[in-house]
Write a structure and sequence with these properties.
single chain, about 290 residues, alpha/beta, TIM Barrel, 11-stranded mixed β-sheet
């Protein structure tokens, strides 16, 4: 098995945000947190957890994505623990990314992530590149300036990926794909991921996504523009990486990794110290 990246789930009792499209709310989470030092079997689960990290490395995985059912920076103690585990590996992960909506990131937090945890890339989930009020309303937080945040991210030497949630509020109707990419460039993006939103009619969140996702016609127009950009690389799970104005662009039509591929797009390391291949089912347990 070859693994593109390892998603490390940061445990938390409750997320401080209330994202309207949150995938985690679509599926009940009942994975026990075994990574607390209050657990009487902590030493055993610590060994299990490190073995899963080693397994990912042994199968060609170079990238960790710190993510979860919450804002990852909510649990600084776990992030410290992960950093210690990683450094204990004979060959530690050197590409460490964090997926965040950004509202909890200030300069002190950015410095701490860079120098204490070893984060190299901030993957910033954005639901509107222009309308900060709309972006905050989707997250369920107070409005904040993406411009000021991205300036700080670049100031501290991170790579900046804008993970654009392709909702109706991402752009206004007169915006072209080129306008979208120009705005991303103004924010200092090194990388862009265009995420086709995942939803269904079975949950409140899924229904919201179905009602608010970018219209197929607009999505197809953006893809038509991307298809004419030069390919600079092909990711192991099949996606093409293209380039415009010194920014790489990847189109993600399968953010939940529901398709079966020879190469795993990502594996998921849960706080129960077990490894899975899918977010939506325990049946995807690897070991």
């Amino acid at each position: 098995m070859k693994i593109q990246s390892l998603s490390v789930v940061v445990p938390a009792k409750k997320c401080v945000n209330d994202c309207k499209f949150c995938v985690s709310k679509m599926h009940e989470s009942d994975y026990e947190n075994m990574m607390s030092d209050k657990n009487i079997y902590y030493d055993l689960y610590k060994k299990d957890y490190i073995n899963r990290l080693k397994f990912a490395r042994d199968n060609g995985c170079n990238t960790v994505m710190l993510t979860g059912d919450c804002e990852p920076v909510q649990n600084r103690q776990f992030l410290r623990t992960f950093a210690d585990y990683n450094q204990s590996l004979e060959n530690p992960f050197k590409i460490i990314e964090i997926q965040t909506v950004g509202n909890l990131l200030d300069r002190d937090m950015l410095y701490w992530l860079r120098h204490n945890i070893g984060v190299t890339t901030i993957s910033l989930s954005v639901s509107s590149i222009l309308n900060y009020d709309y972006n905050a309303s989707v997250i369920g937080c107070s409005p904040f300036s993406l411009k000021h945040l991205t300036e700080d991210i670049k100031k501290y030497g991170f790579n900046l990926r804008l993970s654009l949630n392709m909702l109706k509020g991402m752009v206004h109707s007169e915006f072209s794909a080129h306008d979208l990419f120009r705005e991303a460039k103004k924010l200092g993006a090194d990388q862009i991921t265009l995420r086709k939103m995942y939803g269904d009619s079975l949950t409140k969140e899924g229904e919201w996504v179905m009602a608010n996702k970018l219209e197929d016609e607009y999505w197809d127009r953006i893809n038509a523009v991307v298809d004419h950009m030069p390919v600079i690389d092909r990711l192991e799970f099949g996606r093409e990486k293209r380039v415009i104005d010194d920014m790489s662009i990847v189109v993600d039509n399968d953010c939940m990794s529901t398709q079966t591929e020879e190469v795993a797009k990502y594996l998921i390391l849960r706080p129960n110290a077990k490894l899975y291949s899918r977010w939506d089912t325990k049946g995807s347990l690897i070991f």
